[in-house]
Amino acid sequence: MSASSTPTNVVFVCKKNGGKSQLAAALMRALGDGSVQVTSAGTTPGGALNVESVESLAELGIDVGDEHPKPLTPAMLDSADLIVVLGDEAQLPDGVTVPVERWITDEPSERGIAGMERMRLVRDDIRARVAELHTRLRDA
Fold first, then answer.
1. Edge-to-edge strand list for the sheet holding 36-42
2. Rounded to whole angstroms, how far apart are CA atoms 65 and 84?
3. Which residues, including other chains, have CB under 8 Å from residue 70's CB and lie 6 or more apart?
4. What gap in Å lies between CA 75 and CA 122, rounded to an integer?
5. Cα diameter, the chain
6. CATH code linked to domain 8-139
7. 57-108 pLDDT tens trace
8. DSSP 109
9. Is there a contact between 49 and 119 (Cβ–Cβ < 8 Å)?
């Protein structure tokens, strides 16, 4: 997709919209070439962003600004060209007609890894997936 084309609208979804979907959205925005419009949402939004997620992005020079957990809405689904669901907890409503990808991301806590070490591994897994998706969408 060239920069002069209409941006592809990608909605990143996880259960709480406090960590993984926010990471994916921020990482995609940071690529910043205008070829992808990004939204993130949760199927059951939490009350705040995961502090370690925000800190892991700051380590890369990415500021999440005033982002906050948001509910997934019918308008988001209708405007999406692609929905990416992160993890296996979030479930989309029936009747979604746009393409959906589900990313089962690395979960270091299953290996006893916690704290910022865990979050960096999660971030880096999502970062690689976002980069691959960005390339795929840009070249489509």
1. 36-42, 8-14, 82-86, 100-103
2. 22
3. 17, 40, 41, 42, 45
4. 29
5. 46
6. 3.40.50.2300
7. 999 999 999 999 999 999 999 999 999 999 999 999 999 999 999 999 999 9
8. G
9. no
